[in-house]
Amino acid sequence: MADLKKRSFGMAPNGRPADLYVLDNGRGLEAEITNYGGIVVALRVPDRHGRQADVVLGHSSAAGYARNTPYIGALIGRVANRIARARFTLDGRTHELAANDGPNHLHGGRVGFDQATWSAAPVADDDGPALELHHVSPDGDEGYPGRVEVRVVYTLTHEGALRIRYEATSDRATPLNLTSHGYFNLGATNDILDHEIRIPASRVLQVDAGLIPTGAVRDVAGSALDLREPVRIRDRIGAADEQVRIARGFDHAFVLDGQDTPLATAAEVYDRSSGRAMRVRTTAPSIQFYSGNFLDGSIVGKDGRRYGPRAALCLEAEGYPDAPNHPGFPSIVVRPGEVYRQTTAYEFTAL
């Protein structure tokens, strides 16, 4: 039977108590979500033999999510990914943001949505146990204009998916680009090099040495970034491709080729050893594939596990990175009276 339970998760790094919500779809899929940062702390998925394993990186208490933790499992906002030179111009006015990635702005700034304590409550959803999170970002937060109100609903569906629905409004024009920064390892092993990945995208955003989009939209054909057919990550991650070299692996926004269904397939991942497969479907226009390049073993997570390079991968469904600085990119600006909406589902099966 589907279920949702709540318990204490200890004191968060921001000095406030955190709660942990345990969702169980009654069919072998379980999720643990904390209201601190909206973090997916654990996600237990059965393998081909029905044996559960936790397939996401995380910490066993809220205190473990210190500020040097690279957004593990968290909700990201106001704007996911990078904004060049930590500034943008909107309606003739330049807004200076927090520079927290060298000279650039990353994942909402020094204190983004990943460090907020969200209000949380169970909500009714016919598709499975669901948790709604709510957060208000004040005008001027990290340099962004407007008071933004955000609601995110996590649903653990009967069909075996973790579905995330985002909705936000603002009283002033402001960029919004929300995502979830889950780190997945379907084999629950030391690295994801033997995972197979498919991203059905014919184009990718080219990046510079700072991982900022240059504005060029590159055709993936003939390059190491052509993931339209399943590829073992190990076979591509060291390729002699300038874009792969710059990123030390994969850290690129793939442009999704079309939303021909309400939730278009954005990526598929398969771990042959366990049989676990994950399909990502989304309404977002791009998906950032990050192969855990900057994990360096300094973070010790659940069960004392040290997270080294390639310990997990991220698939962040979102708008284009640095969109406010590229007039040719789809706009991420939300104006008063408009509603930001995005839905992404991580669907699990065992083969």
Kindly describe this structure.
By secondary structure, this protein is mainly β. It has a single domain (3-350), classed as Beta-galactosidase, Chain A, domain 5. The protein contains one helix and 29 strands. The strands form eight sheets. The protein has a nine-stranded antiparallel β-sheet with strand order 11-12-13-14-29-23-22-17-20, with no helix packed on it. A hairpin with a 5-residue loop joins strand 2 (17-24) and strand 3 (30-34). The model has no long low-confidence stretch (mean pLDDT 96).
Instruction: Count the domains.
Output: 1
Treating each run of at least 4 consecutive H or I residues as one helix, how many helices?
A: 1
- Mind telling me the C-alpha Rg? 19 Å
End-to-end separation in angstroms reads: 24 Å
**Residue fraction in strands:** 35-45%
SSE pattern:
EEEEEEEEEEEEEEEEEEEEHEEEEEEEEE
Strand neighbour order, sheet with most strands? 11-12-13-14-29-23-22-17-20
Approximate shape: globular
Largest sheet: 9 strands, antiparallel
CATH architecture: Distorted Sandwich
CATH topology: Beta-galactosidase, Chain A, domain 5
Overall pLDDT level = 96
Approximate helicity band:
under 10%
